[in-house]
Each structure stands twice: as C-alpha cells, then as structure tokens.
Write a structure and sequence with these properties.
Length: 203
C-alpha cells in the first residue's frame, strides 16, 4: 500500500511517519514532494473532517491509481472559549502566524481564567482518500487542561501549554513514544492502522 501525506508540515510528517513505521505494516510512505508538492488548499471548512477531506481530495488527484492520500486536520478546542481556536488553531493569531504567536494569543485570552476552568481537548481527524473516490475519516481526541505558562522543548504548536488528563507534564515534556500513546493523533492513527491491517489482510 502506498500512502502520500497531504501536508507540508514537517512536524506532522515526522509524527505520522514514526507511528506508521512502528506499526510495521507493509506500507510505503511518501511526502507530497513525490508527486510535485502539496497543492495550495484553502482550509475554509467549519469542521476538522471537512478540512482534512479537502486536503486529501486535492492531493489524491495527483496520485497514481494505487496510491492513497492521507491528510490530517487537528486543533485545540478550549471549553472556556466555546471551542476556540478549533479549526483556526494554526492561524489563531492571523494568517501566517507562527506557533509561538498562536500560543501567546491563547495564553493572553486565558490570562485571568482559573485552573478549574481551563479544560480543553486536542482533536485529530485523519482523512484517507483514493484516486477512485473512496473516502474514510479516523478521529482521535485527548482531553486535558491549558497551563498558565509554557513548559518543555519538544512537540510543536500548542504542545508546551497542554497538559493531558492524568498527567502533570505538558505534551512538550513527554517523549515521542509517551505522546503517541495518549495523543489525539495517536488515537486517530491507531484507528487508521487497524483499518490498513484489515485491508491488507483482505488483499
């Protein structure tokens, strides 16, 4: 099976490649450069699934018949902010904003919010699309709290201020293996890997 990752985000490519490699499946994984690069996609859908499907469909048009496009749309939804930043997580501080700028804006929004009201969750929706039009979506979520200051040097995005439920360390303080076991992307990937395993066994 050939999977083409519909993202230009190097951090996401590394995480997805690592999880797929650890699953030891008979899968070849490619980044978009293998088919000329990821086309420009306007992420204007109001759901994570909608954006993920849009990106995967766009890349699927460039793939060989035996390829599958895999797109990830993820974000952080904060209860106190009625689900924001949500689908706007990557551009919360404006188009082209850096991870640090998005994170700082969120910290400012929550500046005076007490710890017991800082709940939220990361969501990950993985869309898998074939050139023939087959489409599947796999979902994962990880609940936790938004800390009052960044900690840790690992991860990316909002990882330094997200402390998963039952932990006292942020995502940015966890090892890649620890994060994969409990993260939203890890949960969605396990669902995807189960599907791929069944698909390959039926081939």
């Amino acid at each position: 099976m050939k999977l083409y990752l519909a993202t230009g985000n190097l951090h996401k490519i590394q995480e997805l490649r690592s999880m797929l490699a650890n699953a030891r499946l008979d899968v070849d994984v490619f980044d978009p450069s293998a088919v000329g690069g990821m086309p420009e996609v306007v992420e204007d859908q109001d759901t994570f699934s909608g954006n993920a499907l849009k990106k995967a469909r766009c890349l699927a048009e460039l793939l060989p018949d035996d390829g599958w496009a895999l797109a990830d749309d993820s974000g952080l939804s904060v209860d106190f902010l009625d689900g924001a930043p949500g689908v706007y997580s990557a551009r919360y501080a404006g188009e082209g904003a850096s991870d640090s700028e998005n994170l700082e804006k969120l910290l400012k929004k929550l500046h005076s919010v007490p710890s017991d009201q800082r709940g939220g969750g990361f969501q990950c929706h993985l869309a898998l699309v074939s050139p023939q039009g087959e489409e599947f979506v796999f979902r994962g979520e990880c609940r936790g709290i938004i800390s009052k200051a960044r900690t840790g040097e690992g991860g990316f995005g909002y990882d330094p201020i997200f402390v998963p439920k039952g932990f006292y360390r942020s995502f940015a303080e966890l090892s890649r293996e620890e994060k994969a076991k409990l993260s939203h992307r890890g949960e969605a990937m396990r669902a995807l890997i189960d599907w791929i395993s069944r698909r390959l066994s039926e081939a």
